[in-house]
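Late entry, evening session. Most of the bench is empty. Finally got around to the prediction I had been postponing all week. Sequence below, unchanged from the version circulated by S.P.
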Amino acid sequence: MNYDVIVVGSGPGGYVAAIRAAQLGFKVAVVERESLGGICLNWGCIPTKALLKSAQVFDYINNAADYGIEVAAPKADFSAVVKRSRGVAEKMSKGVNFLMRKNKIDVIMGTGKLVPGKKVSVTDAKGGVKEYAAKNIIIATGGRARALPNIPIDGKKVIGYRAAMTLPSQPKKMVVIGSGAIGVEFAYFYNTMGTDVTIVEYMNEILPREDADVSKEMKKIFKKSGMKLMTGSAVQKVDTAGTGCKVTVKNNKTGKEEVIECDIVLSAAGVTPNTENLGLESLGIKTTKSGHIEVDEFYRTAAAGVFAIGDVLPTQALAHVASAEGILCVEKIAGHHVEPIDYNNIPGCTYCYPEVASVGYTEQAAKEAGYELKVGKFPFSASGKASAAGANYGFVKVIYDKKYGELLGMHMVGANVTEMIAEAVAARKLETTGHEILKAIHPHPTMSEAVMEATAAAYDEVIHL
């Protein structure tokens, strides 16, 4: 069968690219080896947020007295929490199925492999092989949990994020390796549900890619919640010979080793691309040492008519990045005038509680880039809405270029700040200045007022501090 576009992979990059291609009049097929929606809808973004919401509700109930409400001692049903999460994921995957039918996109179930001649060979569950031809092929096979060389993931005692969502029972003690978004979200979930959690992070701060003030604030909050944080440390080995795990952790600075006993070790040390066995070599498609596919600014690979988007690229491994890349890629194929994505204006969100959201330069990165800065910070402890909501922790931090007033970066810690960061993304896209944000009237009482107040602090005009 011949198509205008075949997309290999149906995650948030693949299925979005397929739908946009269909909207533009292309005949489209999607190849998927497991479930429509990919990791994000089935094992990542969506089901994890369902787990985190259950943890947040449990935390609310445990602290109901703070709001003047008396309740009996709550009890978390771990299996029911997991079941709810899987139900949410299943519903979303069915939604993608509907969108495929609505847009007349053919879904080909099986494992795809690129072959010369602009063809995709698909092996189905029974071992049958069939080839499909297309004028354009988009690789969107995503990524998976990266296994550390000295700590193999066995799926039982040493697990990745996928297994962490469907454990048959709640562990009493857990060690989380890595404190990026995935590690921090699961650490928050299990700690809130009652598991004794230890985070081991190689860098000197948790959430090491965030602004230093964000990392320090989250470290303080997590410690207060009862988590043990071992930063500047590395896991040397995990002994799984007994009933549980014995984790040997070495301090990078002192060289001192400590053994931690736990039930489960969660390896959350990043994501590795799914680029093996795709037939890339046969088409002369180049990859980096880390296995990422090399593309130009419009996602064209070295092979004519073959493109790549999402986690197979060395760009940010985020669902919204993959979707944006997919749309831009397809519109370029259609001959539209498109502008390359500004990867310094990608919002990052971490859905623990409190949440973390950021975009643009950190203060340190802005200084290293040579900017002279105006920096403002407004704590939610001074926010009326945050106090009324019982969520007066965290802050909004803004970073402006002193010369032109350009918004270089915004960094937030607080309740629902992932819903607020889009203001900063839009402002940066529109090249809005600090003066314009300051004079844009923000509604009262809201958490979003803190953006205006932080900007006022940067310009020495803050009222409520």
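Two things to note before I forget:
The chain has 13 helices and 22 strands.
The chain has a mean pLDDT of 95.
Will write this up properly tomorrow.
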